[in-house]
């Protein structure tokens, strides 16, 4: 099976100008994802896990390394050097990202956020509304909140909305940065059901988790990161391809 994503010797550091200090977030990280896989990344807080995902999504620009992605729209491209317009297109149609935090435009309701994600994929308004209702109901977001601004939501409600907005697009590659961090058990199971559904539909996923029980029988492979370095690839959490 061909690799959908290959990271080669990725390094990213940050400069603290006020301290005149350079912090190495990740160094010479290499990993790969085969099409249809769900690969987990584990490690302590501050080990560099989120930095890897943000470099793939191009929220961060690494100092060195390559991130090769087999795009449906553009063929094989390096996400490190790809033009900004190309990255925007990939975020819209192929690559999704779920973080612990919800950053949205002000005066945009929960319903509008999810519906817009579907419409920008090229679907009509009726389909978008129907899928929005299905997704908001799946995550049991109270109907009284659907037409409210997410700024008033609790942390768990914001996270559920963030997951709904990303998953409703059924992206080709989905990056998950602690998607169950502040969710109760019932909500975690809702996320797990959708992940399993997306996997059946062929979505490739790379996820960061502290909840190893959640990963059990879900991930195909696991990369462990310590102090910004991938030091082990374990198969014990894996599920058969």
TrEMBL record:
Superkingdom to which the source organism belongs: Bacteria
Keyword annotations of the record = ATP-binding, Cell membrane, Membrane, Nucleotide-binding, Transport
- Tell me if Ribosomal protein is a UniProt keyword of this record: no
Domain ABC transporter as annotated: residue spans: 5-237
- Membrane among the record's keywords? yes
Q: Which family does it belong to?
A: Belongs to the ABC transporter superfamily.
Protein name from the UniProt record = ABC transporter
């Amino acid at each position: 099976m061909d690799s959908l994503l290959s990271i080669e010797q990725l390094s990213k550091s940050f400069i603290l100008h006020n301290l005149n200090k350079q912090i190495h977030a990740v160094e010479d990280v290499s990993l790969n994802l085969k099409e249809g896989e769900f690969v987990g990344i584990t490690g302590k807080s501050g080990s560099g896990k989120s930095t890897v995902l943000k470099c793939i999504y191009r929220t961060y620009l690494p100092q060195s390394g390559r991130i090769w992605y087999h795009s449906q729209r553009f063929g094989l491209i390096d996400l490190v050097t790809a033009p900004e317009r190309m990255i925007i297109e990939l975020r819209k149609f192929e690559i999704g990202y779920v973080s612990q935090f919800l950053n949205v435009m002000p005066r945009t309701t929960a319903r509008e956020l999810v519906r817009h994600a579907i419409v920008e994929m090229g679907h009509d308004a009726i389909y978008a509304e129907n899928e929005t209702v299905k997704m908001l109901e799946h995550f049991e977001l109270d109907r009284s909140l659907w037409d409210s601004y997410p700024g008033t939501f609790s942390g768990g409600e914001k996270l559920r909305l963030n997951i709904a907005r990303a998953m409703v697009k059924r992206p080709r590659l989905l990056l998950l940065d602690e998607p169950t961090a502040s969710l109760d058990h019932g909500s975690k199971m809702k996320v797990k059901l959708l992940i399993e559904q997306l996997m059946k539909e062929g979505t490739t996923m790379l996820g960061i988790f502290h909840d190893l029980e959640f990963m059990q029988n879900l991930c195909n492979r696991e990369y462990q990161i310590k102090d910004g370095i991938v030091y082990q690839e374990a198969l014990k959490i894996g599920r058969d391809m």
